[in-house]
Design brief:
Blueprint: E1 24-29, E2 43-47, E3 51-52, E4 55-56, E5 60-63, E6 83-88, E7 94-98, E8 102-103, E9 106-107, E10 111-114, E11 134-139, E12 146-150, E13 154-155, E14 158-159, E15 163-166, E16 191-196, E17 202-206, E18 217-218, E19 220-223, E20 235-236, E21 241-246, E22 252-256, E23 260-261, E24 264-265, E25 269-272, E26 292-297, E27 305-309, E28 313-314, E29 317-318
Amino acid sequence: MLNLDGSANTTIFSRLGAGPNSTVSALAVHPANGFTTNYSGRIVIGGYFTQVNGTNRSRIARLNPDGSLDASFNPGAGADNPVLSIAIQPDQKIIIAGDFTTVNGTTRNRIARLNADGTVDVTFNPGQGAGGTIRSVVIDSTGTNIYIAGDFNAYDGVPQNHVARLRSNGALDTSGFISPTDPTSGADARVRGLALDPAGNLVLVGDFSSVGGNTGQVRVGRLLPNGTADASFAASADNSVLAVAVDVQTNIIIGGDFAAVNGLNRTRIARLLPSGQLDASINFGTGPNNFVATLALEPVTNGVITIAGGFTQVDGSSRA
């Protein structure tokens, strides 16, 4: 855990110990809430691990703010394959998504919801679930709409091109967000990341060359709340975009393995204006020397951008 100035925080995670025994690919922090049991600051992690600090936790676990394992969260047998994305609802229930097919012995194809104690929430029923890996899940501020994206082309047996919107009970939203009959609806290839902007538009990044039939959205796209491509938005990257975040001014920060954005040099990280134009007011220099896998904005000021990935340098400075 790092402080805002980049120095190591030796108080938080002071009891992490050996930590997870394999890769952590997703995490989410419980927000402050007014519930009787306050989980604020506890950190849900997902990934490829099977143990945390010597205790069995199959691909999903929760840590206390000091890094110790939260024993009040017990997912039992956990997920049978990697958890790649996590989102926490306003009511503290936890959506997990990835490449699994069971969670604690219950069939859940690539998406499930857990109660705050780690048990499977049986009121969330995805049916057949996603027909391929889910790489990103986000929830709107009300907890009503759940957005997923990834490698799939169907959800619960209904055609959905790499993006879908679910109702709060796990069922596909059939009100017309992604048309099951329009082959151009959604994205034409893998979507790797999602972010909601303040207006409720869905920003998506990945490996695609069009969104909703709009070929002006290449590896970066934006859908309106009705699921159609936002015709006012145009952006492109020359290689995979792996991560995205939107700040309070609706600027879009992207990270990945690209070398150019909108035809201009931007190495693996860039910021776009709400229109999709490159934001020339921010300069990341030579950028990271390898891919950016994930990024986050500091929640108070939205001014600090934290990135992680395969790099060892950023703009020539060592950052392993």
